[in-house]
Specification:
There is one protein chain. By secondary structure, the protein is α+β, with helices and mostly antiparallel strands. It contains nine helices and 25 strands. A hairpin with a 5-residue loop joins strand 23 and strand 24. Helix 2 packs across helix 5, helix 2 crosses helix 9 and helix 5 runs antiparallel to helix 9.
């Protein structure tokens, strides 16, 4: 092991005069902290004409203030503020050192001090140990190349997911305003919709609006699973963080969820999240209830397809109606109630067209799930390789480099 200053030069950032900032592209790109980090390289939002401390292209940038530890590679000569330090490799491959620092990021973060927000000084940063011993320069370069290829795969998946998200957003707008049959449009209270569609209050399309249980819940696997606000993500029910409880005797029959039930968040500290909706798809079977900060809507499925309504609540018009009707309470939260949901205006095409729209959007969701699964696999591979390569648990000779492409030998 070697101390960081044995293999690199440290340049602690220093904020330039505020009068030298601009967003016109004059001077050097200016980076202040982690907030400026992009997914691949930092992307400049400000420029500086009077830099105090400068990072060169290829330097490693590390966040030294709130939070401590995240790193990135400087893609251009830049001015760095006091939230960053530049690490300039001297006798070690730069990208290898970057990944080494990624590996010890938690250790670096633990060195941070301060009560309001954590920070790390030059002396603390200098003492960080990195593993350059035992790796000759050519092997460092090849290790960095392997990890870079996996990181590029992660970034590609992230871009694909972002594109798919934007595609669905655009597709939802088109489907809920133009339909699927190319009909002429008409103007309504909720904006343009196809001529054959109607607009109705949700109270005319639902059989019940029900508040959840207020019984105390905990992580002990006792009683029924009780879905809470964190489980209603918006688009799906997240069952990774479950609590359990036993509903009161008068709730036992009315609170169990059924496939097709819609759960709405009725209170939240963020106004945009008031009215957030997810449909229950039987993720936990029949022994599942919901908490009092949620409202369940059970629609009349002969008139309204629940998946159709679920998707509509996430359109700009649907979401803005619900959040816009939320009232602010004394504790600063935003609330909706059953009256808000009963007055909710929803477009109503034929159930045949509702199913068609539901199926189209489900195909996009399927693609998004596939991309997210691939992203998780790539992330797991990266972290496994990072650990195994940085600790010499495996060496490059143990890997089939053909899987990673010929660039790993360059």
């Amino acid at each position: 092991m070697a101390c960081l200053t044995d293999v690199a030069q440290l340049i602690m950032g220093q904020s330039p005069p505020s009068s030298s900032y601009n967003d016109l592209g004059d001077g050097l790109p200016f980076f202040q902290g982690k907030v400026d980090f992009g997914s691949i390289h930092p992307t400049p939002r400000k420029y500086c004409t009077e830099p105090k401390k400068v990072a060169e292209c290829g330097d490693i940038l590390i966040s030294v203030r709130a939070p401590v530890g995240p790193t990135n590679i400087c893609a251009m000569r830049s001015c760095i503020g006091r939230g960053l330090a530049a690490i300039r490799p001297l006798r070690v491959n730069g990208k290898f050192l970057y990944y080494n620092l990624r590996y010890v990021e938690d250790r670096i973060a633990s060195l941070g001090t301060g009560s309001t927000f954590k920070s790390i000084n030059k002396s603390q940063l200098s003492s960080v140990e990195v593993n350059e011993n035992g790796f000759f320069f050519p092997e460092q370069r090849r290790i960095a190349a392997v990890l870079s290829l996996v990181q590029q795969a992660i970034e590609q998946q992230e871009r694909l997911i972002a594109l798919t998200t934007e595609l669905k957003k655009a597709l939802m707008h088109k489907l809920f305003t133009e339909g699927t049959r190319g009909e002429p449009q008409k103007q309504t209270e909720i904006g343009p919709i196809p001529e054959s569609w109607e607009v109705e209050r949700l109270e005319n399309l639902a059989g019940s609006f029900t508040y959840g249980t207020s019984v105390k819940c905990d992580y002990n696997n006792d009683g029924a699973a009780v879905l809470r606000i964190p489980n209603v993500i918006g688009g799906y029910v997240d069952i990774s963080d479950l609590k359990y409880g036993t509903p009161k005797s008068n709730e036992i029959k009315k609170l169990p969820l059924q496939v097709g039930d819609l759960l709405f968040v009725r209170t939240n500290g963020v106004q945009a999240n008031a009215g957030r909706c997810s449909m229950y798809r039987g993720e936990l079977g029949d022994n599942c209830c919901f908490a009092s900060y949620l409202i369940r809507v059970r629609v009349l499925q002969e008139r309204l397809v629940p998946e159709f309504l679920d998707e509509y609540t996430r359109t700009m018009m649907g979401a803005s109606f619900l959040a816009g009707k939320a009232s602010r309470t004394a504790d600063g939260k935003f609330n909706i109630n059953t009256g808000t949901l009963k007055a909710f205006l929803t477009p109503v095409p034929t159930t045949e067209e509702q199913h068609r729209i539901k199926d189209i959007l489900a195909q996009v969701d399927k693609k998004s799930i596939e991309q997210s699964t691939q992203l998780k696999l790539s992330q797991d591979l990266f972290h496994t390789l990072l650990h195994q390569l940085m600790t010499a648990e495996i060496r490059l000779n143990d890997l089939d480099l053909e899987e990673f492409g010929s660039n790993c030998d360059n």
